[in-house]
Amino acid sequence: MSVMGLFFILIACIALWWLARQGVLRSSFAEEGEIADFPGAELLPRPPAAKVGLGVFLAVAGCLFSLLCAAFFMRMDAPDWQAPPIPGILWFNTAVLIASSLALDLARRAADRRETDDVKSWLLVGGGCALLFLLGQLWAWRELAAQGLYASSNPANAFFYLLTGTHALHLVGGLAALARTARAAWSGRGGAELAASVELCAIYWHFLLFVWLLLFAMLAGWADNFGVICRRLLS
Amino acid sequence: MTDATLGEKENVLPPPAEVEDVELYHAKSWLTHYVFSQDAKYIAIQYAGTAIGIGLVALVMSWVIRLQLAFPGAIPFIDASRYYQAVTMHGMIMVVYMLTAIFLGGFGNYLIPLMVGARDMVFPYVNMLSYWVYLLATLVLVASFFVPGGPTGAGWTLYPPQAIMSGTPGNDYGIILMLASLILFIVGFTMGGLNYVVTVLQGRTRGMTLMRMPLTVWGIFAAAVMALLAFPGLFVACVMLLLDRTLGTSFFMPSIVEGGEHLKYSGGSPILFQHLFWFFGHPEVYIVALPAFGIVSDLISTHARKNIFGYRMMVWAIVAIGVLSMVVWGHHMYVSGMNPLFGFFFAVTTLAIALPTAIKVYNWVLTLWRADIHFTTPMLFALGFIVTFVNGGITGLYLGNVIVDVPLSATMFVVAHFHMVMGVAPVLVIFGAIYHWYPKITGRMLDETLGKIHFWITFLGAYAIFFPMHYLGLVGVPRRFYELGETAFVPHSAAALNIFITVAALIVGAAQAIFFFNVFWSLRHGKPSGGNPWRATSLEWQTPETPPGHGNWGKELPIVYRWAYAYSVPGAPEDYLPQNAPPLKGEHSP
């Protein structure tokens, strides 16, 4: 529940900031004076719709992961909870995902400079690293399964599979978007359109990296104390 | 009377272009034009048609329930399993597949682009996908009627452990299809929800500031935001329950003995499911209610020829209700047992929602005060909504208190309460909205006489059904029971009242045929409506064509100069000023 609380405070802050920026708090409707003196003339230029759309989607995905984490912490208290050993390959996977995120950020910068060749190579590196990460996650699943740690044998295992699986599915979706972007890059459609598309991919990758780092910390048990602290705060 | 010309304002620049005109997708064949359409107006009609169709299935389910309650055992077809299946499917279909889909997918799709002055939703392709995934979800749900064991009978809340154990009807295939269908629905809804939110944020035409949007758009916008944040709760719950059922994980399933045999589950927490479910379940009430609030505000203002009282307050009330409703889910779990401090917290937040809601009701009443009220069919439905919603809301205050809720929780009182507040009330708004916007959708009026007959039978009939149910609850008639049998505490008169309720339910259900006849008959034979039969101000009534063409606005996007409630304006050429009419000389806004 604390996880959800934190998440909602974050969302509420963003919403308030946005409402304030839109001038809602400035009583823009009850303005005095001639009607043609339009009050919103100094409004900031709007970001592109696709970017806002991605932002809203990230809020939804963030909500999904927060809920999964909240469920994780609530279920953790049961006496039958036995956290599985963390497969060593996860460290490697984390490094690969960081590399993937970095590569896409470099692709974004290259696209801003309109250097399409650089964009292509960084997109390849980023996509390749992401694929490698997915393979690594599969490997981690196999490693756990080889030790007899199935989803049905302990809820901690089940959460491991569920959390990594959900994250991986989001990455697969991201790869589909990345493939579209890559097709645009290779078909020679450079320019602002490509830059926008690459930027969206980069943002999504950073988000997934951030989520993965939190999940990794949680699965490795470094966040165990978090639940204890929250309970003390509440009681 | 002053001249309405732009010319006198030459020293003032027109409002900035808040949105660039967009390249629209143009359908090339009959199939992409009418079936796989990317036009929000077609998608809206597809959404609403599917929702009403599946809603009729749920209506029949409610007859099954009522027939059993009034004449227990008289119809051999309705055995205990079928009764519980009917209860489950009635609840789930009405709440998720009918109400949510028609308000957001139906009215949201039709009204948002038209009301904010956009040519279409911002992501038309995703919007189309949203409908087809929703249709698939509905078909999966319907398929569960035809699998061995039938649909699930776990109750619409699908509480584990009973939902997936033998003994609950449909525990083999029904529950799996139910969960799969919900997961699909949420995926489809998220696609649509992204569109509704981003279109309101990005697609508004010049001059359409947030505080000039009609309250309908505010209501749908707030509901879409809430739904995007609340549906993941149901999604997580469904996925985890599905894993419990199929892979044998123990997210929710405790150690349990079934038929003398220990199941392989251990240590899961059914309470965890309840938290996740109600984290979605309570906001869901307002996901349905907020669009209804918005639509009613517009209907009342238009048909009473008066500006809405306290527009700013109405907007903030919508936002406040949206925020508060995310932190009240615990009041559905008073009888599940919880820390008394949490009980206190949830009771306080629940009662606090009464404040913004009361503000809205007062503002509706003050809008009507000394207004030029036209008792048209949409207005009758809007007024019916206010009465019903107040009625259901007040019993909500009773149930929001832990101490009152505990004895009443398992009785028909709760059934009466939530049917009043989120069954009858939103359905009245749906009818009102259809009577109101039908002329824009088809170019023809619905028949007023038939509409009024439909209203009075529906309104009085709904009261005949649900008002006595409160008394049944107070004398202790339990809900969820297939058959009461002989009990010492339930008086015999309860049976008579049950028969009365069932007869009323059959009549009200059958009376909806009047509505459907009206809708289909008026398509051909209705009075041509013209572009703006209600003399309304908001943008959807100002389209160059009726029904609006592809792209809605012809060559030029409209420019908005004022809010949507300029009715009975002194000095105006007519008694109202459309949002896009050029400013009058010396006119002061809103």
Q: Strand-and-helix sequence of chain A, N→C?
A: HHHHHHH
Helix percent of chain B reads 55-70%
- The CATH class of chain A turns out to be Mainly Alpha
**Annotation field: number of helices of chain A:** 7
Portion of residues in beta strands of chain A equals under 5%
The best one-word shape of chain A is flat
Radius of gyration of chain A: 22 Å
Mean pLDDT of chain A: 85
CATH fold assignment of chain A? Four Helix Bundle (Hemerythrin (Met), subunit A)
Please give the number of β-strands of chain B: 2
What is the rounded distance between the termini of chain B?
Answer: 19 Å
DSSP helix fraction of chain A = over 70%
Question: What is the CA-atom radius of gyration of chain B, in angstroms?
Answer: 25 Å
- The number of domains of chain A is 1
Classification by helices and strands of chain B: mainly alpha
The helix-strand sequence of chain B is HHHHHHEEHHHHHHHHH
Explain what the structure shows:
The complex is a heterodimer of chains A (235) and B (590). With 235 residues, chain A is mainly α. Chain A has a single domain, classed as Up-down Bundle (Four Helix Bundle (Hemerythrin (Met), subunit A)), CATH 1.20.120. Chain A has helices spanning 2-21, 49-76, 89-112, 116-146, 155-186, 191-219, 224-234. Chain A is flat, with a radius of gyration of 22 Å. Chain A starts with a helix and ends with a helix. Chain B is mainly alpha-helical and 590 residues long. Chain B has a domain at 33-213: Cytochrome C Oxidase, Chain A. Chain B is built from 15 helices and two strands. Chain B has a two-stranded antiparallel ribbon. In chain B, strand 1 and strand 2 (261-262) form a beta hairpin. The chains are: A mainly alpha (235), B mainly alpha (590). Chains A and B meet through helix 1, helix 2 and helix 5 of A and helix 5, helix 6, helix 7 and helix 8 of B.
